[in-house]
Amino acid sequence: MRLRPYCSKRDYDYLEKWVDNERIHALWCAGRLPWPLTREDLEAFLEKNAEEWGGFAYVATEDNGKPIGFFLYSTNVKDNSGFLAFIVLDQELRGKGYGVQMIKLALKYAFDITGVESVQLNVFQDNTAAMRCYEKAGLRVRRVEENAYKYKDEQWARCNMVIERQ
Question: What is the structure's pLDDT at 22?
């Protein structure tokens, strides 16, 4: 597996397939992007995210270059921490260890290249598969915010997970 910067022309069609229904979309972006996802909305969001938070999009690929996952990563220079967000994996590869491998590679990038002391992410407690993936990659739950997000008739708790440099 490899990481590279996200390129809309090469990667958007994959991302659109992975975030293919409204519930997955809500779990993925917590309503920060409109449903259904469009290339234009995503590009505008990514540009704004880069300007305001210094966050950039990355794609995980198989060794042959085929995209299999996506995430945003930003560095907070004030507290020397990293933040992962908008994490998604090809649905056909879920539950097979690819997600753990992608997160471990993202963490390696965060610690070894950007030099942060910790990395955190937020995940909805209802997204149990993602939580298990992050735990297998070494993150632990730091805090839980109950009723953080409303999706239709559901209320989701948001878990903040963290890992420290070892």
Answer: 97
Distance of CA 57 to the CA centre of its chain: 9
Q: Side chain identity at 108, as an amino acid letter?
A: K
CA distances 166 to 5, 107, 118, 134, Å, are: 26, 11, 9, 16
Please tell me the pTM assigned to this model: 0.96
Omega before 67 within 30 of 0, i.e. cis? no
* Torsion-angle region of 95 (φ positive above 0: left; ψ -120 to 50: alpha; else: beta): left
Contacts of 32 (CB under 8 A, 6+ apart): 45
- In 3D, which of 2, 15, 11, 12 has the Cα closest to residue 109? 2
Find the mean pLDDT for residues 40-52: 96
pLDDT at site 1: 97
